[in-house]
C-alpha cells in the first residue's frame, strides 16, 4: 500500500515539477488540477505520455507568440494535448522518433545528465560542510555523496562506450533507472535535512504553505493537502540547503 502511495505521489510530483518549470515561475496547482492528475493516474496514463503532452501544449502555446505576461495558468490547458499524446502512444508514435524527426540535441542529452549530476555533487558537497548535527548525520551525507559520485562515473563510462559504438542505442543506463536512484537519494537527503532542522521551523513552514494552498483551493482533500504541504516543505528545505531537485524530468 505504501509503495503504491509513493508511486502515485511521484507521478503527481513529476507532472507538477515539469509544469512549473515550463511555466517559468512558481505556481501552486489548484484542486481541479489535482483532480485532473488523479484522473490520469487512475486511467493508467503513463507518466511519460502525460509529460509529452504537457511539453507539446507549451510548445504550441509559444508558437502562438503570446503577449507580455501571457502564460499558461492551469494544468487543464494541457488536457487535450495529453489526450493526443495518449492516442499517439497507443499507436506507437510517442517516444519513438524516426531518424528524420530526431533532434540534434538528442545526442547531447547524456551530457546534460552528466552536467546535472556534477552540479548535484557540488551542491551536496557544499551543503555537507555546513550540515548541523552529530557525526552520524555527516556520515550519512557522505554516503549520499559517494552514491552520486558512483552514479556519475557509471553514467560517464556508459556514454563513452556508447560513443565508441553507436549513440542510436541511447544511454547505457536507462533514464528511468537513473531517476529511480536519484529519487531514492533525494528522499535520504530530505530525511537528513528534517532531522537537522528545528521542529518549530518545519511546523511554521508547513502552516504557511497549508494556509496558502487553502486560499487557492477549497476543493482539495485533506490527504492531498497534507501531501502537497509536505512536498513544498521538503522543496523549501532543499532550496535553503542550496540543493536543487535531483530529478531529471526537467532537463
List how many beta strands DSSP finds: 0
Q: Could you say which overall geometry the principal axes of the C-alpha atoms support?
A: globular
Q: Any idea how many domains?
A: 2
Helical proportion, percent range: 55-70%
Instruction: Determine Rg (CA atoms, Å).
Output: 20 Å
Amino-to-carboxy terminus distance:
31 Å
Structural class determined from secondary elements? mainly alpha
SSE topology string? HHHHHHHHH
Number of helices: 9
| Low-confidence runs | 94-106, 163-173
Question: Proportion of β residues?
Answer: under 5%
Main beta-sheet strand count, sense and barrel state: none
Mean pLDDT: 78
Walk me through the structure.
- The protein is an all-alpha fold.
- It folds into two domains: 8-90; 106-240, no CATH class.
- It is built from nine helices and no strands.
Could you give a short description of this structure?
The chain is an all-alpha fold and 251 residues long. The chain has helices at residues 2-23, 31-42, 47-63, 79-90, 109-129, 135-164, 175-195, 199-216, 222-240. It is built from 9 helices and no strands.
Kindly list the characteristics that best describe this protein.
251 residues; 9 helices
Topology diagram in text:
Elements: H1 2-23, H2 31-42, H3 47-63, H4 79-90, H5 109-129, H6 135-164, H7 175-195, H8 199-216, H9 222-240
Amino acid at each position: 500500500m505504501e509503495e503504491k502511495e509513493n508511486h502515485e505521489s511521484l507521478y503527481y510530483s513529476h507532472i507538477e515539477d515539469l509544469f512549473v518549470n515550463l511555466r517559468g515561475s512558481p505556481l501552486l496547482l489548484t484542486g481541479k488540477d489535482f483532480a485532473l492528475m488523479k484522473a490520469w493516474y487512475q486511467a493508467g496514463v503513463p507518466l511519460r505520455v502525460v509529460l509529452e503532452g504537457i511539453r507539446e501544449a507549451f510548445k504550441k502555446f509559444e508558437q502562438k507568440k503570446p503577449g507580455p505576461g501571457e502564460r499558461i495558468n492551469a494544468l487543464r490547458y494541457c488536457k487535450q494535448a495529453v489526450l493526443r499524446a495518449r492516442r499517439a502512444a497507443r499507436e506507437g508514435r510517442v517516444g519513438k522518433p524516426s531518424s528524420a524527426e530526431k533532434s540534434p540535441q538528442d545526442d547531447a542529452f547524456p551530457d546534460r545528465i552528466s552536467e546535472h549530476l556534477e552540479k548535484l555533487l557540488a551542491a551536496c558537497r557544499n551543503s555537507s560542510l555546513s550540515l548541523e548535527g552529530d557525526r552520524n548525520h555527516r556520515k550519512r551525507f557522505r554516503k549520499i555523496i559517494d552514491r552520486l559520485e558512483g552514479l556519475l562515473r557509471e553514467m560517464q563510462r556508459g556514454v563513452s562506450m556508447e560513443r565508441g559504438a553507436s549513440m542510436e542505442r541511447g544511454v547505457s543506463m536507462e533514464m528511468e533507472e537513473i531517476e529511480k536512484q536519484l529519487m531514492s537519494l533525494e528522499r535520504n537527503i530530505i530525511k537528513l535535512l528534517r532531522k537537522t532542522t528545528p521542529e518549530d521551523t518545519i511546523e511554521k513552514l508547513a502552516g504557511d504553505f497549508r494556509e496558502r494552498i487553502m486560499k487557492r483551493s477549497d476543493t482539495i482533500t485533506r490527504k492531498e493537502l497534507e501531501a502537497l504541504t509536505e512536498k513544498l516543505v521538503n522543496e523549501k528545505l532543499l532550496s535553503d540547503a542550496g540543493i536543487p531537485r535531483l530529478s531529471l524530468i526537467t532537463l
